[in-house]
Amino acid sequence: MQAPPTITEVVANDEQLGFHLEYGRFISVPVAFYPTLALATPEQRGHYEINASSAYWPELDADIGVEGMLLGGELALGQRAVMVFANEDFNLSWTFQPLSIAEIFPAR
């Protein structure tokens, strides 16, 4: 299994969350895919640590990896990724399930 690429720079603003990767590729998703970052102040979004293939925001306790970002790019709001066992050898795969309205907008 190949390790995910290393992040060299993070872009986190009011519109997008993006990673510049070691081999020159830039991947991004709408910041709304990550509500913790979307609701954070610009200062909080700007305080992160890069740990190889993931970025960590200590003030927000948010850790987002390249693999999650790539999956996030596949997700639309209102869906969740669910890891499932594909067979008896415990090979993993992902499936996507819609969220209920209550999960998207929890009661306060």
Write the layout of secondary structure elements.
Elements: E1 7-12, E2 16-21, E3 26-30, H1 35-38, H2 42-46, E4 49-51, E5 54-57, E6 62-65, H3 66-74, E7 79-85, E8 92-98, H4 101-104
Antiparallel strand pairs: 1-2, 2-3, 4-5, 5-6, 7-8
Written overview of the protein:
With 108 residues, this protein is α+β, with helices and mostly antiparallel strands. It has helices spanning 35-38, 42-46, 66-74, 101-104; strands at residues 7-12, 16-21, 26-30, 49-51, 54-57, 62-65, 79-85, 92-98. It folds into two domains: 1-74, Uncharacterised protein PF10387, DUF2442 (NE0471 N-terminal domain-like, 2-Layer Sandwich); 77-108, no CATH class. Helices cover 20% and strands 39% of the residues. The strands form three sheets. It has a three-stranded antiparallel beta sheet. Strand 2 and strand 3 form a beta hairpin. Mean pLDDT is 77; it is low at 74-79, 81-87 and 92-96.
